[in-house]
Specification:
Length: 215
């Protein structure tokens, strides 16, 4: 069975504090990728674009399953479900490159960097996680899984002209870097919302099937 490391513990056991935590399952990114995304943000930031809300590059990750508010005492069973999924999914490779936006570059709402590589294996992992968590009572994802890394969101109230101006900037920006990532683990993450933005911390991490876990 893949190695897992649960960090929310007291005396070797998961705390039964009834407090709920906002959590999700994700693939964490190497520092090299985060640093590259930080350079891209610096390249695109403009003082006049006050309607753009940037995501902290240090907290960017690839979300596989958003769980919402979960009691701390459920961390163990969620991690165990992740272990079962990980045992059947070996490591795979992804490539991070390309810029785009939702719904498009003329009406930008979300600006993101694309993901390529072994997408079938990524999709299989995401679907397996969705199924495993459904058995624990978590609702299945209603929308199709579109892997991407969100770099910025356009604030509500931004005009159509402002959205298009930012889209034009993105469309004219060369992002030739390609980052190759070997996905070897999935993490259960905590998201703490603050006025300055979300703060993320790892609750547990599970190594994928053929990875060599720590002892």
């Amino acid at each position: 069975m893949p190695k897992s490391y649960c960090l929310v513990v007291k005396g070797g056991k998961v705390s039964h504090n009834p407090e709920e935590i906002r959590s999700f399952i994700a693939i964490e990114l190497p520092e090299e990728v985060k640093e590259g995304l930080a350079r891209l943000r610096k390249k695109l930031e403009r003082r006049e674009h006050i309607f753009v809300k940037w995501v902290d590059p240090g907290g960017i990750h690839l979300t596989l399953k958003f769980l919402g508010n979960v009691p701390v005492k459920r961390v163990t069973e969620i991690t165990e479900a992740m272990e079962e999924v990980a045992a059947e999914n070996p490591p795979f490779h992804l490539e991070i490159s390309g810029l785009d936006a939702f719904p498009n570059l003329k009406q930008v709402r979300v600006f993101w960097v694309g993901i390529g590589g072994e997408l079938e294996k990524l999709s299989q992992l995401q679907q397996s996680i969705d199924s495993a968590l459904a058995s624990l009572g978590f609702a299945r994802e209603a929308r199709p899984f579109v892997p991407h890394l969100t770099l910025a969101r356009i604030r509500e109230g931004a005009s159509a002209l402002e959205r298009k101006s930012f889209g034009d900037l993105v469309g004219s920006t060369n992002f030739e870097e390609k980052y190759h990532v070997t996905v070897e683990a999935i993490s259960l993450m905590k998201s703490q919302l603050t006025p300055a933005g979300a703060i993320y911390s790892r609750l547990s991490v599970v190594k994928l099937g053929d990875s060599k876990g720590e002892n």
